[in-house]
Amino acid sequence: MPLRSTQAVALVVFAVGLAGCGGGSGPITQPTPVTTTTTTQPPKPTGIVLPAGMVCDPTPPPLFRYVVKVWSGSCKPGEGCLLDSHPVVQNVDDYCGRAGFGSSWKFCETRLEGNPQRQACDYLLVGQAKDTLRWGPTWYGENRLCGTDLSNCSNHPSEQFKVHVKGPGEFMACVDEKVPLSPEAELGGPNGRCGIINIE
Q1: pLDDT in tens, 159-176
Q2: Which of 6, 31, 41, 73 is most buried, by the most CB atoms less than 10 A from its CB?
Q3: Quick one: which H or E segment has residue 147?
């Protein structure tokens, strides 16, 4: 075979080989991008953080009711009396039994009177007052803060769970907005977070 014919045949074979190996001018395929999904966890409830050194174990279930009652004195018009308050919970997971009240109780306070953890457990279900920033409820008389522009109720000098009143009127003790509430909570007042008493 003449040299030129041999070179021509070689060039044709080389070109065919390139085409078979993807050397042609066909469409270029782009790689498929990998999608990365980032999962964002919902924020945890803030809740109430106890002062350092205070312990409440077991912790109470969410607040069911906030009780306000006359603690001492006469609430007749012009005469002063002292109101007291405390949280009440449902017996969830035998909390009332573990807190010392008895497993058959349907509702109970956070601890028995005199229990060294009662104060801490009450703090968890009440938080801090908006006006005084003390641990205990925010007190209102006729929808106004006690001790500010209202003359017939005033905060107790050392105990935020109590308030001095000179009836008549509607008085409320309201827990902190960070306090968790039971789905069946029996509460009234602003945002459903208050215990209410009417003095006639």
Answers
A1: 999 999 987 889 999 999
A2: 73
A3: none
